[in-house]
Amino acid sequence: MTIRKLLKKTLLTLPGFQAWCRRLTGDHVRVLMYHRFCPASQSHPRRLPVSEFAWQMAYIARHHPCWLPDDQLDKKPVAAPVVITVDDGYADFATLAAPVLRHHGLPATVFLTTGFVSGHTWFWWDRLTWLLDNCPAGAQEWHTGDRQFSGVTDSPAGRWSLWHEIADHLSTIDDDRKETALVGIAGQAGVNIPAAAPKEFAALTWQQVRQLMNDGIEFGAHTVNHPVLSRVNAQRAEFEIRESGLQLAAETGRTPRWFCYPQGGPGDFQPETAEQVRRSGYRGCYVAFPEPHHDDDPMTLPRYSAPTNRLDFQWLMCGAEYLFARRQPPAAGRKGPV
Is there a domain that residue 330 lies in? Predict the structure, then answer.
């Protein structure tokens, strides 16, 4: 156990420490960001087992009021409120996460990539995963442009190591180069990536979206195709921001009031992007990183990526993470999750 984890464990077990932190940070809204879920019997580096999600939701139900995004703008936080958000719109939200939320009576907001839900696209990081899972096992060496990637694909650990190496590069380049790189790597690996997402990577259907909305789940917009908005021209960004809201309204009969930036790091949107979101009629917008020094602009509201470790989750939720972060200078250049 690291010194940092030992300190966390020691403090969290002190009688009254968590309640004391919650009182000190009662005016801080904890906005949690989730993406994918998996059955309790499975372990996956990019998906939260539903058993852990259930534990986290039970913790929130015991200790925190749970808000929707509108509440963050309309109410004065005094008791450490939590906002639960889920990005992208994967089918496992409906089958795994939504029943847990219903059980605890907790609201949540799902930000949909509408082209994904409509079946027109699936995400590049999932296509990379599928490529690595279906390429020949053994030592691999691929290149794209001036970058070369090498690794071993005969074990889950080897494939994930190679996934991270390639994904770290792809997350920094624009969509056209990213697509060219994926096609090139697939050709070198001797695999054909399916045009439509296989079941493991499936999106919610619009029918499921409407049913979840009837059950009390809110939906916001997350673009049509999930481009990094700072890497497309103004016309494309305007289309992605506005059209995703229009598609969502057409399918559900309700105009979405909230948006969140794809990838969502500090370099993934610009002030003019935020202004486009505002002009498109959204009340507010979330980024994908915590920034305790700038949590009052409705177009750049910070979020925490929900920890998978219970110790880290309690540390975050009681407010200790926020108290320590407030002592640090503002962050710059932090990359958000895909």
Answer: no
Strand, coil or helix: what is 122? coil
In the chain, which ranges are continuous DSSP H helix? Answer: 3-12, 17-24, 50-63, 69-74, 92, 98-104, 114-117, 124-134, 156-170, 175-189, 206-214, 234-252, 271-279, 310-318, 320-325
Tens place of pLDDT for every residue, the chain, 338 residues?
788 899 999 999 999 999 999 999 999 999 999 999 999 999 899 999 999 999 999 999 999 999 999 999 999 999 999 999 999 999 999 999 999 999 999 999 999 999 999 999 999 999 999 999 999 999 999 999 889 999 999 999 999 999 999 999 999 999 999 999 999 999 999 999 999 999 999 999 999 999 999 999 999 999 999 999 999 999 999 999 999 999 999 999 999 999 999 999 999 999 999 999 999 999 999 999 998 766 679 999 999 999 999 999 999 999 999 998 887 766 554 455 66
Six-digit token pair at 2?
């690291």
Pairing, β 139-144 against β 147-152: antiparallel
- pTM of this prediction exceeds 0.90: yes
Pairing of strands 304-305, 284-286: unpaired
CATH number of the structural domain spanning residue 72: 3.20.20.370
Q: Could you tell me if 78 and 161 lie in one domain?
A: no
DSSP string, 128-171: HHHHHHHSPSSEEEEEETTEEEEEE-SSHHHHHHHHHHHHHHHT
User: 152 and 91 in one domain?
Assistant: no
The total number of residues shown for the chain amounts to: 338
